Amino acid sequence: MNEIDNIKKCVELIETRLNWSKDKTILRNDFESLRASIIAVSGIEVSVETLQRVFGKKRTYKNIYNPQLQTKDALSIFLGYLSWDDFKRSINAADSKDEAGIIPDHKHVNQELNSASAQTTKIGQNTRKFQIGDILHKSKFRMILLTFVAMGALLVILIWLFRKPSETVFVLDAKPDSGYPPNSVDFTYQIGRKLKDSVFMYFDDYNLTKYLPTNSNTIRNSFLIPNYTMVMVKAGGKVLATKGILTKSIYWDVLAHSGDHFTIPMHDTLGILYISPGDYSKNRATFSTDLWGVYQYFTDFNADGNNLTLETRIINNENMGGIACYDAEIELVCENDFAKITFLEPKCESYAKVYFGEKKLNGAYTDLSAFGQNLSDWSDVKVEIRNKKARIFFNRKFIYQCDYDESLGKLKGIRFRFKGFGAVDFVKVSDTSGKIIYNNDFGGPADISSLLKK
Q1: What is the pLDDT of residues 333-372, one digit of tens each?
Q2: Statement: residue 16 has pLDDT above 80
Q3: Residue 335 vs residues 332, 339, 415: alpha-carbon distances, Å
């Protein structure tokens, strides 16, 4: 039998099993049910459209559609064979026996027994016992052998059916995994065969998803804004692989909630990290009453996010461009997760957030009244983390503690987020021994007198 004949035979056997007669109308729902059964038995993805072509229900440029080997393997396994090759060997062997007139083994054994019985009527009792015993011994041996073969085949089928599907997707490499914007990164990946039609790469923070084609193992993406982006390979709602990409900052950057971005000038005369609503409107867009200003800096700090101290001084008020509730968020972006605290004016604490790794606290459900603070003047904030225990201080007074279990990993970025435009006087990061890892006072002592004039 040639390949087309084998496909026809496979289709006939499946139709027989499903009671799909020639005069029966086969609907798409029938093929969807068949597809689900094939995937459940074989662990191999097959589309409804492919099945319709194989069964001649969808027009192709050939009379008989010859699908890819993976599909033929799936159909064969559904029928109880190990693979397409196993199906062909079995079918062709059966046809060869029929053509040669070979009697199946169980008929041959009966014929031997009948012949032996006839022969024993002509010879003595002892001879008859010997002949029958010899035949039975051969038959018993053959049955034992067939039993072992059947058990072996059954074991192979069970291993095949209950094997762990090849779902692993590896992001083998990312070159480079850090750089300055525009940062163009080549990802090299490897896909298990079951997931060829359903694997995607998701870029966190960018809300971007890209399909991973099976005819390639490389995909490129450009990162334009300084950030630490967690790239995830997903399939069926599961995260199969992750890779962090660091796009470094040259200077501290400012972003708006609308997505506008530009590098902030260093205000040597003010000695602070700040841009006014007027500067923003002049550079980018009309000032919005729902605008969020973001100051951020990303680099390899070479600091353990679970054991460090962040010290800073912040302000957010109406005269400087702040918007009620004068939110001020401080975030430490790390390679595994992040830490974030939110200060607001009193009575706005329901919007407060305290995030450290897997511990995510929200003021709407947790008492975070300690973060309701007056930010109309300069306020000192210290975040002290020791062995996954975070202690928060406001104006040198301890106000809150948050313990967590999952490691944050290395520090990759610092971000301030203000409702409107607040300001930052200095940023300092040190390790547990007090050694300074990063320090920036933005040009000198803060002078905001001109900004506070109405």
Answers
A1: 999 999 999 999 999 999 999 999 999 999 999 999 999 9
A2: yes
A3: 10, 11, 14
C-beta separation of 69 from 106 below 8 A = no
CA torsion sign, 408 to 409 to 414 to 420?
Answer: negative
Tens digit of pLDDT for each residue in 42-56? 778 888 888 888 888
Contact call for residues 334 and 412 (beta carbons, < 8 A): yes
pLDDT for residue 323 = 82
Contact 285, 296 (CB under 8 A): no
- The 10s digit of each residue's pLDDT in 166-182 is 444 455 678 888 889 88
Beta strands in 363-435 (DSSP E): 379-386, 389-394, 397-403, 411-419, 423-430
Nearest to 66 by CA among 75, 20, 193, 35: 75
| CA–CA gap between residue 320 and residue 371 (Å, rounded) | 21
Give, in degrees to the nearest 5, the angle at Cα 180 between 174 and 184.
40
Count CA atoms within 13 Å of residue 431 on its CB side: 8
**Amino acid letter, residue 184:** S
Phi, psi of 130, deg, nearest 5: -65, -45
CA gap 280, 144 in Å, rounded: 87
Contact yes or no for 350/342 (Cβ under 8 A): no
What strand order describes the sheet that includes 218-223?
169-175, 183-191, 218-223
Among the residues of 190-310, which ranges form H helices? Answer: 277-283
Q: Are 344 and 371 in contact (CB under 8 A)?
A: yes
Q: β-pairing, 238-247 with 178-179?
A: parallel
Taking residue 199's Cβ as centre, other Cβ atoms within 10 Å add up to: 22
Distance CA(323)–CA(320), nearest Å, equals: 9
| Residue 271: predicted pLDDT | 78
